[in-house]
Amino acid sequence: MFRIVLMVTGFVALQGCAVRNGLPSAPTINAGRSWVDQPVLTAADSGPAKRADPAFIEERARQAYETGRWDVAEGYYLQLTRLKPKDAGAWFQLGNLYAGQGRLDSAERAYREALRRHDDPRTLHNLGLIQVKLGIGALREAQTRLPPTDAARRETRELLRTLLETALP
Predict the structure, then answer these.
(1) pLDDT, tens digit (0-9, with 9 covering 90-100), for 14-59
(2) Burial classification of residue 135, based on how many CB atoms lie within 10 Å of its CB (0-12 exposed, 13-18 middle, 19 or more buried)
(3) Residue 145 is part of a domain; what is its CATH number?
(4) C-alpha–C-alpha distance, residues 94 and 71, integer Å
(5) Which residue segment(s) compose the domain that 135 sits in?
(6) Confidence (pLDDT) at 50
(7) How many distinct structural domains can be found in the chain?
């Protein structure tokens, strides 16, 4: 049990998502956007050929991501997932985007989609971090909702205390 707690707290302590080489890391804002398809190309984008060019879409997504235009980046990455359905990169970046915004359920789905396409340890790392954060959130909610006399509430409180104390330097 101690080894599991120690391992989980190591993940929580890191609280960072891995990035793929050459791709930006996750943003750190919190925007409650939903998992939706959005229009992604502007009038400034020229010609129908560019609109279907995955390299063009990927570059636009990267630029939007790096400049903090998260909704635009999300739309481009979603479009890229349709243009290159077997490629894991866009799903990985969506996971990072969602994780940085606190959209943990969406991040988990995106990382799982990336893993379905390519078994990558960085993606697995990020998925694990998201699952730890989701688990801690679920334990916190369970602790507040369980009756005060319930043994599960006491166990949950102790587990949370151990996790959070171990995660702090």
Answers:
(1) 455 666 655 555 544 334 444 344 444 454 555 555 567 999 999 9
(2) middle
(3) 1.25.40.10
(4) 11
(5) 2-167
(6) 58
(7) 1
